[in-house]
alcohol dehydrogenase (NADP(+))
Amino acid sequence: MTTASTLPGAENLDRLEAVPAVAAVAPDAPLEAQTISRRAVGPRDVRIAIEYSGICHSDIHTARSEWSEAKYPLVVGHEIIGRVDAVGSDVTNFSIGDRVGVGCMSNSCHDCPACADGQEQECHNGTIMTYGGVDVDGSITQGGYSAATVIDERMVLRIPEALPADAAAPLLCAGITMYSPLRQWNAGPGTKVAIIGMGGLGHVGVKLAAAMGCEVTVLSQTTSKRSDSLRFGATEHYATGGDEGKENLKALRGSFDLIINTVSANLPMDAYVGLLRTRGVFVEIGLPIEKLSLSAFTLTHARRVLTGSLIGGIPETQEMLDFCAEHGVTAEIELISASEINAAYERVVGSDVRYRFVIDASTF
């Protein structure tokens, strides 16, 4: 495990600044307004006055201790956009007033082979996540549901001015989560891509794949979002639920070069992986609680690949943001105030949002 003494920034341990925030206090309790402390700005730190913070389903899982036991009180949020309002003495990449973002990571060792390769999310010494991780001073990291944050400049991203700040916030998680596997598996013109799930992740994936020139198909339980799928750039949208869905899955067998699964429900994996062509790739992004079940024959008989993906490194995330600015890709959002976060959580759980909530940080 990485320790505070081995991490950059550990030379600055003071925690001086009080910041308004909204925090989870127990697994089954509503989030509450609180005041948290942020560390003083160290030599390589930037302080960010947060303007917008997206709500990711991961925030809810973490706040409610559904994946593992959280340490409360905990401020979640890893889709952060704001302006730099202070910089450390050794900061070279950012200046006061710059529009910047922070995604799922707040630090890494910056020294291992993965970090050297720009894959900080795979840090051999332990990536420090934006919330719920162990910070450089040994405290628990606190995320973006707050008015300000302090982050090592090497984990900060430049937000192109062409992107609207509120609609760009979800790109810092949903955007890179979908962009990275598309790039990893060389999606582009002529690639037949299927996106499973048309939610916060899926709708961004459709936009990105379409902007890359792919032929995009959406696979969703129903056709209720078909018009949105086509509007975002898909060429087809098929229902996968009920009898119609069973027939569609049979008819589509062997159709796709790349499938990205965004849903966290357990799927009949043989049926879905069987939708791949020979040497096709199935990327698992959703995180179902139960183990995946798949016959080896489904893979071996057509040399299919089953793999996973988790966000992306800082260089690739910056590449994604620049790509989105060039191609006009943003998330579809509903802007809310801090007082609406608990109601928004219930709507996310009930699949009642198209497609991401973003918090106006001026309301903390």
User: Anything to note?
Assistant: The chain has eleven helices and 17 strands. The CA atoms of residues 49 and 56 lie 20 Å apart. The longest helix spans residues 314-327.
